Amino acid sequence: MNRKRRIEAMAKAYWVATYRSIEDPEALAAYAKLAGPAISAGGGRTLARGTPAKTYEAGMDQRTVLIEFDSVASAIATHDSAAYQAALQALGDGAVRDIRIVEGLA
Description:
By secondary structure, the chain is α+β, with helices and mostly antiparallel strands.
């Protein structure tokens, strides 16, 4: 299989962030200012952001962000990058979040 075909066959990855609480809106704004460019630089594309239109079962009516990457490796590399880590430093204890990186179906 040639390189181009291998890249096309790789599954996308989705970074899902759910916010349980926002303790410091100013810290969140500082985080967003740094995180957006860091995620874009890593190839991330924000697909959805905001509070749920509807929740079911044990769903929480809290801010959710869905970001698509070309692969799990690129999502992890972006999270672990110096630029994104700087964004996390700016956030500090400003929010309680749950972040998951999930491989898409190929």
